Amino acid sequence: MATNVQVKIQGIRVEEFGSPQVMKYADFELRAPGKGEARVRLHAAGVNFIDIYQRRGTYPVNLPWTPGLEGAGVVEAVGEGVTTVKPGDRVAYTSVPGSYAQAIIAPADKLIPLPPELSFEQGAAFPLQGMTAHYLLHEFHKLQPGDTVLIHAAAGGMGLLLVQWAKHLGARVLGTVSSEQKAKTAREAGADEVIIYTEQDFVKESKCLTDDKGPDFIIDGVGKDTFTKDLQAVRTRGHVVIFGSASGPAEPVLPNSLQARSITVSGGSLFNYMNTREELLMRANGVIQGIKEGWLRLKVDHILPLREAGTAHEMLENRRTTGKVVLTCEA
Ligand SMILES: NC(=O)c1ccc[n+]([C@@H]2O[C@H](COP(=O)([O-])OP(=O)(O)OC[C@H]3O[C@@H](n4cnc5c(N)ncnc54)[C@H](OP(=O)(O)O)[C@@H]3O)[C@@H](O)[C@H]2O)c1
């Protein structure tokens, strides 16, 4: 296919911020790939909580906007100077906006070779959440065998990957979830203990489960409802990483309140942990290796057609999902 032409595609367009209903399925034109870029014909797009923050207008994006930062498909055309991929290559990626569509223009150096063992749905499920699990478990508190880690929303897309990876590193894993059904899912992924935090006080329960010391490390993507309590739950000299706000932004804390028990806190954003192609591939290949070796399973529990992106968002933001949500992008 010629490189220097626009193509007509279909996908989601957003003209105003708001509820899932602002996402409309529409026809639009995709420009030709420029220097260093590739056009990827998408088979699947990953749905992530950040898409919801952006759709609501909580995180800034320019309108009109096509949601989605993650996908998988086949390279269809490349621009000048591209040497890392060629037409016909299967690829996956994250951090390229506009993925709720049939095709995308991506910087070629962001494309991850997708091995034949992984389906396109799996390819759209692993980059953002898998590489996030990688940096969260390797860049802050280095887990030692026997350490206890507490993972909030343990049956979610992030949660299930973190549970499995922390177990692989030899940790004892405590998870929190909102329901018995999700507790079962988290246990199946390997969580040693699961606290239903809508019914039980996770501070009290996690202390009880650790001889009153508290977890060594807490990984929190829930935010408002959990972060202040994390600081009570974590052990003296323990570490809390806050990397999301599914329940809303965390309450502020006074730095001196961390002093008495020497608690450390980090903030995490994947976009700071794949600064070079080498770093991107190191993290992506770490995830792929885990999948190939069988200790990391991608649980793609919800696959919906692109037209139903609104339903996918409603399910995710209303806590009705477990594992990963993926949209299929074929016409
Ligand atoms: N900073 C980064 O690098 C990065 C990268 C990826 C994801 N994240 C963050 O990680 C978190 C999880 O993302 P995900 O895509 O994997 O989503 P997810 O965990 O599959 O879904 C969100 C889960 O959060 C829990 N939750 C608690 N209170 C909630 C509320 N008021 N509303 C909605 N959900 C609530 C729910 O689990 P329960 O029902 O069990 O409570 C829900 O299923 C998000 O905060 C996201 O922004 C951050």
Computed CA radius of gyration, to the nearest angstrom = 20 Å
- The CATH architecture of the largest domain comes to Alpha-Beta Complex
- Determine the N-to-C terminus distance: 18 Å
Describe the sheet with the most strands. Answer: 7 strands, mixed
Q: Which superfamily, in CATH terms, is the homologous superfamily of the largest domain? A: Medium-chain alcohol dehydrogenases, catalytic domain
**Top-tier CATH class of the largest domain:** Alpha Beta
Q: What is the percentage of strand-forming residues?
A: 25-35%
Bound molecules: NADP nicotinamide-adenine-dinucleotide phosphate
Task: Briefly characterize the structure.
The protein is α/β, with parallel strands linked by helices and 331 residues long. The chain has 9 helices and 15 strands. The mean pLDDT is 96.
Q: Can you walk through the features of this model?
A:
- The protein has 331 residues and is an alpha/beta fold.
- It folds into 2 domains: 7-126 and 298-328, Quinone Oxidoreductase, Chain A, domain 1; 130-271, Rossmann fold (3-Layer(aba) Sandwich).
- Helices cover 26% and strands 26% of the residues.
- The two termini are 18 Å apart.
- 47% of the residues are buried.
- The mean pLDDT is 96.
- NADP nicotinamide-adenine-dinucleotide phosphate binds at residues 48-50, 128-129, 132, 153, 155-159, 177-178, 182, 221-222, 225, 243-247, 268-270, 316-317, 319, 321.
- NADP nicotinamide-adenine-dinucleotide phosphate (NAP) binds at residues 48-50, 128-129, 132, 153, 155-159, 177-178, 182, 221-222, 225, 243-247, 268-270, 316-317, 319, 321.
